[in-house]
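Thread title: Can someone regenerate the structure for this chain?

I was given the following input by a collaborator and told the matching structure tokens would be attached. They weren't. Posting the sequence so someone can regenerate them.
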Amino acid sequence: MLTENQISHFNVFGFLILKGLLTQDEVDLANEEFDTGLALAETHSERRGIRQQLNWTNLGPDSPFLGSLLEDARFLGNASQLIGSDVVGHYANCNLFDGDRTEWHPDTPHLARRGVKLAFYLQPLDADSGALRLIPGSHRDPFHSDIRKVSLKESNSGQIDADGLDIEEIPAYVATCEPGDVIAFDNRTWHASWGGKPNRRMCSTGYFAVPTSEADSDIVKQIAEDDAHLQDAFPMQRRNEHWVANEDESLVRQRWIEILREYGFRGL
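Best answer:
Regenerated them for you:
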């Protein structure tokens, strides 16, 4: 359970660092499953953009541990507390980064969207080796939108703007981490990385708030559209039939599947 101070930190700054949430044995298991997924991804997709990124879903039969984290009480419970409501878990992914940077961006263009990503890296990272950088308070307007007015060298379009502000000129928090640490951040928070070496391994789970109004429902329909575009760009992120089959008869997962179907998410 998170403390009130932790929840307040997330609400004010748009992120929260959860130290040592995973054990070393779990990190070792995550690396094993990552290796399996990476071998498949390398034969079915190409590295993309300045991130030189490969990504794939963990909701298949080859990654039972990483897939289980979507329903794990440490992840699901924290997501529910941070969003402040019932949530839907809609992805569990792996990402490999070989580029030396990730451009500044939020994970959603929808400021009305209440969602959270819980991400963890499988190696130690600091400011000079690709640690996640987050701009505190950038999940809320007007600050969120004002950032788009600033010329950034690593822009949201993934292009290099030689006249933009350098990474060190952006007032951001560097989320130095060790394997086992988890970074929870609001989907709207601006973030980036710099100085990364090849083979940076990140795993993540994602959640959005269960709709309680017509306005919320419209936002979830937009999330479904965004999700479809993402699957077109990254086919290995498509929802796996193994997860949808729900052979373990998880009541939590079945409810999520029904909600995702209702709002038009693909692969269900």
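The longest helix spans residues 24-44.
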